[in-house]
Design a protein that fits this description.
With about 425 residues, the chain is an alpha/beta fold. It has 3 domains: about 200 residues, Aldolase class I (TIM Barrel), CATH 3.20.20.70; about 70 residues, Roll (Ubiquitin-like (UB roll)); about 90 residues, MazG-like (Helix Hairpins, Orthogonal Bundle). Helices cover about 40% and strands about 20% of the residues. It has 15 helices and 17 strands. The strands form 4 sheets. The chain has a 9-stranded mixed β-sheet. The protein has a 4-stranded mixed β-sheet with strand order 13-12-17-16, covered by helices on one side. Helix 1 crosses helix 2, helix 11 crosses helix 14 and helix 13 runs antiparallel to helix 14. The protein is globular, with a radius of gyration of 25 Å.
Length: about 425
């Protein structure tokens, strides 16, 4: 389903997040953390503006954009100082879903075509501050650009053939619905969204009530459909939506359930304090809802969340860290196996062990590691030509090990790889 996107802006200058193009007031010294917070507020995408003034600052901002993309779980678009095909490539490799080229630069017309042919139309966006910039290049934009950010948010022309994202400086929230109702508008960005960042869920709820399609989860069960205890409470098992790790158990009443659904932040009822509490309100360790499930008896809720920081008041990631009973059995979760092997490789890199083959590879350097990756890939090809499944299995495992050594050498993690695959 095609939703209308709500897109806050992030302005990057000298390693910090500033207020805007012409206002370098520092909002945050932690752009990645701030971006993560925006994702939790209900942003669908982020528009990252690089306000660097030279190549050195530009490279620093690309590293910062990479850090932001590792932190958030929503797509990002990058804009600013994109002058060469190499800039497009670096930003896409830094994790951006798409890049935005300024139509005010004549040189970018050719660059749009060149970049779209190499990376795909879906990776390319354009930014225009005048209708003429769109209409004069309509054929190119239709063929090579997926969306257009219009800096003048007044829709004065027939843009039926385009996907337009108005950049709105007006902070009057009523403007949002008026623009989003238009068929050519696929999202909103600008000061309007930034000024109302903490209430994006309410903005989306208002849009939905007006019949506008937005990315907002809808409850298939109400609190009345659930089976509570005599005290009107229902237990909630909280799970990390990425790793499936069980983080904590808490309770909800009707009011906290409704607040959770409305705000997107996990809100519970404290039995000891006899009051509602928003997880993370004092610590900053918020839990942002990704999904809610009821069990077969509808007397327990499973909440899959995006956890910021630690879930436990002790500082542990999960409240379940005191081992009572544990057996010795082989791990069968594929992701855990990859993570466990990779953790050993990282430990060898940090704490060399005499006689370790992994340390031998690290000592020999990148050329030796690349040679082994190539050799192991060739051995997979040879093994696959033979009717021996066991040999193929062995060679693939050998190859994956050497790829993980390469990942460690290049400072990549499984999270980086999985995120890239998901983006595809």
């Amino acid at each position: 389903m095609n939703y209308k996107s709500i897109i806050p802006c992030i302005y990057l200058k000298n390693g910090k997040l500033v207020k805007g193009f012409k206002d370098e007031t520092v909002i945050s010294d932690d752009p990645a953390g701030f971006s993560s917070q925006l994702a939790g507020y209900g942003a669908d995408r982020l528009l990252l503006f690089d306000l660097s003034e030279n190549d050195s600052e530009h490279e620093e901002n690309i590293l910062l954009i990479r850090q932001i993309n590792k932190t958030i779980d929503i797509p990002s678009m990058a804009a600013g100082n994109i002058n060469r095909l190499e800039d497009v490539k670096k930003l896409l490799y830094a994790g951006c879903k798409s890049v935005v080229l300024n139509m005010a630069k004549q040189s970018n017309i050719d660059l749009i075509t060149q970049a779209a042919k190499r990376f795909g139309k879906e990776k390319m966006m354009a930014c225009a501050d005048a209708d003429e910039q769109i209409l004069d290049h309509a054929d190119i934009l239709k063929e090579y650009v997926s969306e257009i950010i219009l800096l003048d948010h007044e829709i004065k022309c027939d843009y039926a053939a385009f996907n337009i994202i108005p950049f709105v400086n007006d902070t009057d929230i009523s403007v949002a619905a008026k623009l989003l109702r238009q068929d050519c508008v696929c999202g909103l960005t600008g000061e309007l969204i930034n000024a109302n960042a903490e209430t994006l869920m309410e903005l989306k709820s208002s849009c939905r009530e007006q019949g506008i399609s937005v990315n907002l989860s809808e409850c298939s069960l109400s609190f009345d459909d659930l089976t509570c205890g005599e005290n009107g409470l229902i237990p909630v098992v909280v799970q990390d939506y990425k790793t499936d790790e069980v983080l904590m158990v808490a309770y909800m009443n009707r009011e906290s359930f409704d607040m959770t659904v409305k705000t997107g932040k996990m809100t519970y009822y404290s039995r000891s304090r006899q009051k509602l509490w928003i997880k993370g309100e004092t610590s900053g360790h918020f839990q942002y809802v990704r999904s809610l499930y009821a069990d077969c008896d509808k007397d327990t809720i499973l909440a899959r969340v995006r956890q910021i920081g630690a879930a436990c008041h002790t500082g542990n990631r999960s409240c379940f860290f005191e081992e009572i009973l544990s057996g010795d059995y082989p791990e069968s979760n594929p992701l855990k196996v990859f993570e466990n092997v990779f953790d050993v490789i990282l430990d060898r890199k940090k704490n060399p062990k005499e006689g370790s083959y992994t340390n031998y590879l690290f000592d020999k350097g990148i050329d030796k590691i690349l040679k082994k990756v190539g050799e192991e890939a060739t051995e997979i090809v040879i093994a696959a030509k033979n009717p021996d499944q066991e040999e193929v299995k062995y060679e693939i495992a050998d190859f994956l090990y050497h790829v993980m050594v390469l990942m460690a050498e290049c400072d990549l993690t499984w999270d980086d790889i999985v995120t890239e695959l998901a983006n595809r």
